[in-house]
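1st attempt posting a full record on here, be nice pls
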Amino acid sequence: MLSKWLDRKSLLVGAVCFVVGLLIGWLAIGWGLWPVQWVDADPWDMRASHKEAYVAMVSDSLANNGDYALAQHRLRGWDPKELSQILQKLIADRRARQLGLEAQQLQDLSLALGLDVVPAAGTTPAAPATATPVKKATGLLRWLPLCLGILVLLLIAIAAIGYLARRQKKAAGQTPAVRRTPAATAISDGGATPLNRFVATYRVGEESYDESFSIESPEGDFLGECGMAISETLPEGTPNRATALEVWLFDKSDIRTVTRVLMSEWAYANADLRAALAAKGELTLAGPGQEVVLETERLKVTATLRDVSYGSEQPPESYFDRFVVDLDASMKPVAGTQAA
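the predicted structure (as tokens):
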């Protein structure tokens, strides 16, 4: 029915909107316009040159104020091994540059921290630590990660759309076979032209059962729809168990839907339930071999109840275990025409 098509379309639109929103929110905004910026980092999380500068500033501060507790507090949480290596490198660097006072201040800081880091005699210090220049990506290289991310998400979206399309195609392919009657077939049943036959099957446990079929002319023109759906279930029990099903016919030229409610013996004997279902359509006690006719201005569907079997749970004969209906659609003759 139209509602099924709308549900599939809504699912597809929702998936596409999700992917587009992800592209805009995560990549375009999160990476391009307002990227994440780190703030309030600890000293030991900085690059090597900044770590050395920070330790040197703590050494200068200690030399000026003599506050050993403050110096220890400023370097609290630092890995002792890494801190020893930094101090050793700084002391060697200051001695190589004939900065004996600064070297001694760094030595005093190491003693205040309980670190004995005297560089070996004759050691040639490494060149002063300088930050290795990092070439920033410019032009297209700067946006390469963003473009790659967008490409990956687009591929995922295309794959999802293709998967949904295959599912719809597969679902369409599972529709019971349609028997078409050529236009040249002899007119019968009061002048009605046979069109299609469909088979609608309900099995217990199909909680959202709603099966529909398109009625077409011998030339392939859409004339209407027919089908079968759950009309009422038992008030208790899991899964939902249908106690009444409804067959329906929609005529495009009549713009209305005709419905017949097929009830179990338990439901048909329940006066309150019958009163509640009367608004849906004419009520009928379902039985195997029974025929129900639905007619509109131009179409006619004969529903033959081929298989009607009940479930074994209580109350008896209250819900259908299996329900199979043949739906024979035909087109009524136009007023004023006569059968040949």
